[in-house]
Amino acid sequence: MAEETKKRKADHIRICLEHKAQAREATTGFEDVHLIHKALPEIDRAKIDLSTTVFGYKFSAPIIVGAMTGGTEEATRINGAIAEAVEKLHLGMGVGSQRAAIDDKELVKTFAVARKKAPNAFLIANIGGVQLVHGYGVKEVKKAMEMIEADAVAIHLNAMQEAVQPEGQTNFEGVLVKIGDIARALDKPVIVKETGAGVAAEEARELEAAGVQGIDVGGCGGTSFAAVEYYRSEKEEKRFLAEAFWDWGIPTAISLVEATRAVRVPVIASGGLRSGTDFAKALALNASLASVAQPVLEAAVKGAKETEKTLSCFVEELRNAMFLVGAKEIRDLAKVPVLIAGKTAEWLTTRGFKVETYAKRGAS
Ligand SMILES: Cc1cc2nc3c(=O)[nH]c(=O)nc-3n(C[C@H](O)[C@H](O)[C@H](O)COP(=O)(O)O)c2cc1C
């Protein structure tokens, strides 16, 4: 069992590094989201403040690294490198699913390294929603959190991934009630995150009503777990299902508007964010934090310095975008006019969201 999980985790890393396990035809929708350039920014770039407080924690910039790994030696190095970088930059990170280490204490160190290398950063524990349906409860979630002295826990939803893999667990009956039980029992924030297929307004509302304190939309347009499963399945005849769902899901920008319009709890943007301008657009669409996984994985295998460099580039790009729209503080981004065009506007309008509201912001 543990060996199987170990192999799966190693496969995920290898595939995400070697293959292009990214959305093919599908895009995030951020290409349809336009920030309006301000020829008269009337602010001093040097005075821009990127810090923000979310979940009671002060981040130096609204950027976190998405949950990725644990359970193997390589994963220990990756988690360590990311942790060192986020500690230095005062950001946050998630660790990968901790299921393996809950069942096998030998593996605890592959996750615990994150807290060791990042005594002060915001750390998010990780457990699968489907595990809650299959027997995990408050005890196991607390164990995962204690492992990394977590500031929050993310319960991940990955129905699509489970549905395209031969060994997938596809019974999600009662998952919302179980999530609610966990949210009520813990005194730290419970965040529910998708893993590349997005969250619609209806589910966001249900999750908030169940008591979750944060939603990470994990939208479509970046890493595709159908693609990962496609490369994992050795047998050609098993690949058809994964290939058919390669681009499945709600694009990130759309999911972000749906979720932020539906709930009051902090919403995290993730899924295919690849530049500081993507981060700026996400924040302008009312995300509280923006999260990135795949590009950081590529840097983390090269070490902490490279990881820090990648994250610093995102921070500087975000600062530039803020300068060019005249946003002095992070909260100002949620007030700047945003033009939503193309298929993203069409989708949102059809779903009953008024895209003009974003364009008219700040107009006198
Ligand atoms: C190698 C790899 C492993 C991942 N493992 C997990 C996981 O264990 N738990 C989880 O919640 N998300 C996991 N994710 C999903 C990411 O947290 C994120 O939601 C997704 O990759 C979209 O972000 P991206 O497009 O920036 O990569 C993983 C992603 C990658 C690339």
Summarize the structure.
The protein is of the alpha/beta class and 364 residues long. It has helices at 2-18, 73-89, 99-103, 108-117, 129-133, 138-147, 159-164, 175-185, 201-210, 225-232, 239-244, 252-262, 276-284, 294-300, 304-324, 330-333, 342-350, 356-359; strands spanning 33-35, 52-54, 57-59, 63-65, 92-94, 122-128, 152-157, 190-194, 214-216, 267-270, 289-292, 338-340. Residues 12-13, 16, 66-69, 96-97, 126, 154, 156, 193, 195-196, 218, 222-223, 270-273, 292-294, 297 line the site of flavin mononucleotide (FMN).
Shape assignment: globular
Strand order of the largest sheet: 4-5-6-7-8-9-10-11
Number of beta strands? 12
Residue share in β-strands: 5-15%
Distance between the termini: 62 Å
- Please give the largest β-sheet: 8 strands, parallel, barrel
Structural class: alpha/beta
Gyration radius over CA? 19 Å
What are the segments in which pLDDT stays under 50 over at least 5 consecutive residues? none
How many individual helices? 18
Residue share in helices? 40-55%
List all distinct small molecules, including ions and cofactors, that are bound in this structure: flavin mononucleotide
Q: What's the rounded overall pLDDT mean?
A: 96
Task: Spell the H/E element sequence.
Answer: HEEEEHEHHEHHEHHEHEHHHEHEHHHEHH
